[in-house]
Amino acid sequence: MGCTTFSVANLKGGCGKSTLALNLAAGLMVRGRTVLLDADPQGTLAHWTNHEGVVGMPHVVAAGASLSRAIRSASSEYRYMVVDCPPTLESGHTETVLKMADIVLIPVLPSPPDLWSSTHMVEAVKGARSINPGLRAYFVRNQVEPRSALSQAMRQALRSCGLPSLESTLGRRAAYRWAALEGISVYQFGARGKKAVSDIESVIEEVFNHD
Ligand SMILES: Nc1ncnc2c1ncn2[C@@H]1O[C@H](COP(=O)(O)OP(=O)(O)O)[C@@H](O)[C@H]1O
Ligand SMILES: [Mg+2]
Predict the structure, then answer these.
(1) How far apart are CA 5 and CA 35, in angstroms?
(2) 4: how many CB neighbours lie within 10 A of its CB?
(3) 101-156: per-residue pLDDT in tens?
(4) Coil vs helix vs strand at 59
(5) What backbone phi and psi angles, to 5 degrees, belong to 5?
(6) Which of 177, 184, 198 to mutate for ligand 1's pocket (most ligand atoms within 8 Å of CB)?
(7) Residue 13 Cβ contacting ligand 1 at under 6 Å
(8) In this structure, what are the phi and psi dihedrals at residue 54, rounded to the nearest 5 degrees?
């Protein structure tokens, strides 16, 4: 079976790209050999995963400069790949990734300015599809508060931007921050990570069950 390549991208910093990428990779590891490529020259993930010896943490490869080569070689070795993108189109890295990925997940915070800036991502996805027509793209609402009417309204508004949102969301949970501080994923966080793990699991299952 080939490699399924997930990318996590948005042109906005702080929306949860690295959080989603790392935890998604940790969830995919349970299913098959997984690698996490850090395409962000800021190298957030490399800082994050100073965790020598923590079982079940994804292997992180810094792939800024030689990105397309790294993606090609990882796809022959791994069952799943997750690529964390930088928050800009300027370096060309995000475009390179979108042209090679199977799926792009676009985290968005439930606030109007974040929604407006996502329209640029929709353009980037449409551009990439001229070369990579099979690219599947979904918004993932992040830092969602329980029972938030805003979050449902966001889903509608995002649909009118031109791409679907997953039904699954990531809740606003301290576990994501604590796990990051400790350099681990929420899967390594025991009972404290349980709700966050269930967020990530439902993202994975929804993506797998969508066509
Ligand atoms: N669902 C969430 N709940 C709580 N904190 C979150 C959540 N998602 C992200 N964060 C926090 O928000 C900050 C920005 O997230 P990060 O993943 O680094 O964003 P990006 O990679 O898009 O710049 C980090 O401090 C992260 O721990
Ligand atoms: Mg980041």
Answers:
(1) 10
(2) 20
(3) 999 999 999 888 888 888 889 999 999 999 999 999 999 999 998 777 888 888 88
(4) strand
(5) -105, 115
(6) 177
(7) yes
(8) -80, 115
- For residue 173 and ligand 1, the question of a CB distance below 6 A is answered with yes
Residue whose tokens read 């993202």: 203
pLDDT in tens, 109-124: 988 888 888 888 999 9
Query: Cβ(83)–Cβ(97) under 8 Å?
Result: yes
Q: Is the pLDDT of residue 207 over 80?
A: yes
Q: Does the predicted TM-score (pTM) go above 0.70?
A: yes
Q: Which CATH class is domain 4-192?
A: alpha beta
Instruction: Dig out the tokens for 57 from the structure.
Output: 């943490």
Name which residue sits closest to atom 3 of ligand 1, judged by CA: 172
Q: Where are the domains of the chain?
A: 4-192
* Ligand 1 near 176 CB (within 6 A): yes
Give the three-class secondary structure for 123.
Answer: helix
Ligand closest to CA 42 = 2
Q: Where are the alpha helices (DSSP H) in the chain?
A: 17-29, 44-48, 67-77, 93-100, 112-129, 149-161, 174-181, 194-209
**CA torsion, ordered 77, 82, 88, 91, to nearest 10 deg:** -10
